[in-house]
Amino acid sequence: MARTQHRSRKEQRLEARVTPAQKRLIERAATLRGTTVTEFVVASAQEAAMNTIKDFQVLHLRDQAREVFVNAVLNPPAPNAAARAAAERYKKHMGL
C-alpha cells in the first residue's frame, strides 16, 4: 500500500532583485539559522505575510468595534426591567 504525501507541491516561483549588501545579509541570516537562502527567504516572507494580514484584520476589527461602541453610546437601548430594578436598588442603598 503506497503512502500518500500530504505536502503541497512547490510549483510556484518567486524572484527578487537585491543589492549585494542585501544578499550578504540574507545569506548570513540563513547560515545562522542553519537553512538555505531559499528556505530562509520563503519562511521570512511567509511570516511577514501572515503578520501583515493579522495586523490588517486586527485594525479592521478595531474599527468595527469602535463603530459599535460609539453607536451604543450615542444611541443607548432603553433599560429593561432588570436594569430599572437595579437602578432602584442602587438609589435606595445610596439614599437617593
Explain briefly what this protein structure is.
Helices cover 69% and strands 0% of the residues.
- How many angstroms does the end-to-end distance come to? 81 Å
Structure classification: mainly alpha
Share of helical residues:
55-70%
Task: Provide the number of structural domains.
Answer: 1
Which spans of ≥5 residues are poorly predicted at pLDDT below 50?
none
Rg over CA atoms, rounded to whole Å, is 28 Å
Given the C-alpha coordinates, what overall shape results?
rod-shaped
Mean pLDDT: 90
User: Beta fraction of the residues?
Assistant: under 5%
Order of helices and strands: HHH
Largest beta sheet, briefly? none
- What oligomeric state is this? single chain
What is the tally of helical segments?
Answer: 3
Per DSSP E runs of 2 or more residues, the count of β-strands stands at 0
What does this structure look like?
This protein has 96 residues and is mainly α. The chain has one domain. 69% of the residues lie in helices and 0% in strands. Helix 1 packs across helix 2. The longest helix has 38 residues. The protein is rod-shaped and about 75 Å long. The protein starts with 19 loop residues before the first helix and ends with a helix. The model has no long low-confidence stretch (mean pLDDT 90).
Detail the topology: elements first, then pairings:
Blueprint: H1 20-33, H2 37-74, H3 81-94
Helix pairs in contact: 1-2
Please tag this protein with its features.
mainly alpha, 96 residues, single chain, rod-shaped
